[in-house]
Amino acid sequence: MKTVACKTMLLLALSLSSVTAVELKFATLDESRAEFDRSVKPVLAKFCAKCHGSDVEEKDLNLQTLATDMKGSTSAARWAVVLSQLSLGKMPPKGEAQPTSESVKAIVDWVQAEMKRSGKHVAMRVEVQNGNEVPHALLFGGKPKSGIDVVTRVRPLSPDIYESFVKEVGKGASAGQPFSPNPATTFKDMGASRLDEPTTSQLLGNALLMVEQLTLHKLEGGVAKSERGAPNPLVRLFDEKNPATEAEIETAIKFMFDHALRRSPTPDELTSFSTLLQRNIKDAGRKSGVRYSLAAVLLLPEAVLRSERGQGKPDDAGRVRLAPREIAFALAYALGDRRPETWLLADADAGKLDTAEGVQAAVRKMLDDPKFAKPRIMRFFREYFGYAKATEVFKGEDAAEHYPRDLVADTDRLIEWILEQDRDVFRELLSTNRSFVNYRWDANKRQGTRANNNAVHLAYGLPPDWKWTDKQPIELPAIQRAGILTQPAWLVAFSKNDDNDAIHRGIWVRERLLGGVVPNIPITVDAQLPIAPERTLRDRMQVTHETYCWQCHKLINRTAYPLEIYDHFGRFRTQELVHDLEATAKNVDPKGKPLGIVKKGVPVDSSGSFDLVEGDMLAGNATNAIDFVRKLAESRFAEQVFVRHAFRYWMGRNETPGDAGSLQAAHQAYKDNGGSMKALLAGLLSSDSFLYRVRPSEPMSVDQP
């Protein structure tokens, strides 16, 4: 057994071409300083001292005197800046000598390890964590000036795709998830999971579980009999009375390749796996030998990785086009979680995906096929808007009338309805006053939700005597609701237990609609608003106008204030309830015992603006949320920012200046087709950014976060 396991693990390691990550740890300050002197200090002296040394302190940062002990000091915040600038490739500046990737990694590893030792924490934004770094004008400001500059890559399957793969190949097998999304990225499918030793061990265990399902059998007099539909070519390998012949072994291997990888093995693969299987049977016995050998097929790169390596010679621009099968898998995974259907692989083999027009035709075919599951489209809108997080926000006050799952379901259905119309999708998403209200509730059978007819719809401001109807969506008052940002689900998702979360609402608008970048909160800042229930939230946020805080909050506050016309349950309001201290002090019984808090209403000030938008492409003031979101809905700039986010999601990476042509063409396709999401998708998935890569000069490795 040990021999088989070692051989399979070796095969896995060779397949993944990955190196186990070594996490740097320090038990003492002396260990940390020794590592700093060994691997960090020389790099800083060589590449950074020119601008950040004893003679010059650009940005008030001297790396030669910056404390290496982050415990009990403010140096962690400064090191966090160094970490971010290095990881984003912003420092050293372009044109200056650059450290090697190994040197950068050494600095990053030391900073993270020292922060862990000293009890500090930093949420670093690396390349995949914010895609608004590229100036908007470079992408949409005119004719593209550069070509595709994204290198070939191999990345792990997303958790959803891998789960689908296990169930499909393993005939319903349920296995542990080796991959996990990076919570710091804009979208879950951005940034690769780390292929470390625990991950590879989980992959091996899952492969054995799938093989076990595929080879269920019983022995009757030494003859293997299939159970639960296990395929006979595989079961035949377990026959002890009449062992499988070489031809039958090859048949089993061919079956496994076709079943798991949707292709035939090459002659070399057929020989290698046949030899491996026979040797493993001899070393470890028939049962273990067969199962470990078949599991090795499920550990080949194309089973657990997504390949974007391309084939053929580079063109005049130095680009290589993805191989036809790579394109087929990329298209299938762009819209769904399952491997390509037979017709798509046939199109790839027949050369129909060799042109952008052919790829676009395939995309259109999938989009127009009602039987083809396309879960990734709705997943994009859920991740983009973030409204599904409403179920994670605890509510105490009035919680008996709060049904967040139903609110989320209503917003799901509204987006689906807008996509079904497929006209002016972005504008409708931000401006429609139509809404589904408790749509899952069945008026006759009382099934689908525990909410009753007089509960969920209260969040929408409908009168108590409103009667539920299945004729939806309904129209809500146009002066109260306009699009997803005024849906109770979205408002609750960006709220707290008993108050609005104006800051995170503002950050969302700044980054998702205004294309800005809001820096992370410095780890040395206690980011808390004053606890003063007698004051409005807007009044309490005046503390953020202090010089140190305003550098970030000038990007946030006035994009959040318009949404104050809704409370933390997403209910429309004209007044904000605050504690009336004077009335509360008088609210006592004859014996002087307090009888409770008395509240009073203060008119809501919901005025806001579009300050500090790149190039003044969107400017002016807004009186309230309705005015605010409708101006955004009509903004070409905001629409382009939305296209950037769609690009990010479907490419699994951030945009670069070389993607300008693809972004502009996709946006134009959207406009030319009346604001069609299908046209936008067809444009993105047939673009040069989707189909081409640049082959790197150094050996390629699996993406690591």
What secondary-structure arrangement, pairings included, does this model have?
Layout (H helix, E strand, L loop, with lengths): L1 H15 L12 H19 L1 H4 L22 H13 L13 H18 L17 H5 L12 E4 L2 H11 L27 H18 L2 E4 L2 E4 L5 H4 L10 H16 L5 H18 L1 H12 L3 H4 E4 L10 E3 L2 H12 L6 H8 L6 H13 L6 H11 L18 H18 L3 H7 L2 E2 L38 E2 L12 H6 L8 H11 L24 H4 L6 H7 L3 H4 L14 E5 L1 H6 L12 E5 L4 E2 L11 E2 L2 H9 L2 H16 L8 H13 L4 H9 L2 H4 E3 L11
Antiparallel strand pairs: 1-4, 2-3, 5-12, 6-7, 8-9, 10-11
Features:
705 residues, mainly alpha, two-stranded antiparallel ribbon, globular
Structure description:
- The chain has 705 residues and is mostly helical.
- Among the domains are: 96 residues, no CATH class; 128 residues, no CATH class.
- Helix content is 45%, strand content 6%.
- The protein contains 30 helices and twelve strands.
- It has a two-stranded antiparallel ribbon with strand order 1-4. It has a two-stranded antiparallel sheet with strand order 2-3.
- Strand 2 and strand 3 form a beta hairpin.
- The radius of gyration is 29 Å and the shape is globular.
- The N terminus and C terminus are likely disordered.
- GO terms for molecular function: electron transfer activity; heme binding; metal ion binding.
- InterPro entries: Cyt_c-like_dom, Cyt_c-like_dom_sf, DUF1585, DUF1588, DUF1592.
